[in-house]
# Entry
Amino acid sequence: MGLFATELLDGRMSRSYLVDVAFLPVGNASQQTTRTQTTSKGATMELKEIFLAQLDREAALSRKAIEQVPEGKSDWKPHERSMELGRLAPLSATILGWHVLTIDRDELNLDDPSSTEAFRQPTRTRVEMLKALEHHTAEARKALEETTEAHLKKPWKLVLGGKVLLEQPRYEVIADTFSHLAHHRGQLTVYLRLLGAKVPAIYGPSADEN
# Structure
């Protein structure tokens, strides 16, 4: 997905800026190999099995971070160029829902406001964000469970201004979306530290949990 999608969902960025800062994966998608994983018994796991397992792990980690978001600090940001907490935390709570857009649609046309309407619902409180996380995780799980390996290898497009900004196999978009979540959730943990909130252990230990 990328920064252009992130900012457009928030509805604040100009189209020209979205194009200028668009995050595009490095390399040609046609030259990249399919991601697979092998079990301890040597059997190859399907892509959807890998993604479903990762979905559960990432959702649990996101919940840990969002549970620590302080109330009443939505406008706070560490720098004038930084994203406000009231944008960053809800974003971290809803990114997993992007998997539904990737699986259910052949393209996401950012010129159509209705295409991202589900992500524009206000989530200002911690309770609302946790509910949003639960909802989008459930929707993503359903989409992944119902898809097929063949479908995940079909191309998906991101369109803006009548131009194709991104075209990749769906499985690559899904993998990049997990990375995008890790990026923004990492930002969120920095905000938590600066605000004096507890920082949960994510991929490694935290001083607040020792």
Summary: Residues 123 and 129 are 5 Å apart (CA to CA). The chain is about 50% helix and 10% strand. The first strand starts at residue 37 and ends at 38. Residues 3-25+37-209 form a domain with the Four Helix Bundle (Hemerythrin (Met), subunit A) fold (CATH 1.20.120.450).
